[in-house]
């Protein structure tokens, strides 16, 4: 049983027509018909009911179709893996991610690496706060990271998207009905935020924005992650300044309200060590540039 015979079989089964299948495979119809006959001879059964107008799978053909697709898919993976190895694109790349800010970009990159770079073991670690991921890249604990950072401490970085600061309040809060709010309206509120000691860029930006608006936020509770933060907001413990990506966490009793000021934006970046010459890392970076283009300034 040859792979090209299986490929021909799948093409005819999907097109239900020898001429269209041959065109799809960029061969003439006669060699394709011969491949199918050889496959049927090898298996000792008829795979298609043929007529002058149509081609239909027999029961044996229906049974073969699923496994044939799986074999062809596995062969394609093996082919890509061998080619990647020939280019040095093998090895292990660890990626750190930071909470909700990675929710949009992480699945896109992970799926692309799995599909296009099968020779690379792509290890995800997190969630961390952005300051933690940057520190781990700097000390070599991570090869690559998503981070919402304005200071990458001399590391290389590429901005792939921007995340806006928004207000999260309980649905019973008076501000929940507003189309937008100013930071000055929050001066007397109680705030829930992330811990100060773990390098949360969201916390730092929120506090800095409040100070620029003329008040120091009254922080009454810290939360270790975005889910807990929003749960505390929904429970009425306090309000929170968080990123727009947190809308992906669907919790009852939490409302997001835009800020009226000129949008305060956090850059979401890919961060890596400039001195890291790993072929595997640079293969991931090249692929990331295709699937996650640089965000406009």
From TrEMBL:
GO terms for molecular function: DNA binding; DNA-binding transcription factor activity. Transmembrane segments: none annotated. Residues 1-58 form the HTH lysR-type domain. Keywords: DNA-binding, Transcription, Transcription regulation. InterPro entries: LysR_HTH_N, LysR_subst-bd, WH-like_DNA-bd_sf, WH_DNA-bd_sf. The keyword Ubl conjugation does not apply. GO terms for cellular component: protein-DNA complex. Belongs to the LysR transcriptional regulatory family. This is LysR family transcriptional regulator. The lineage of its organism: Bacteria, Bacillati, Actinomycetota, Actinomycetes, Pseudonocardiales.
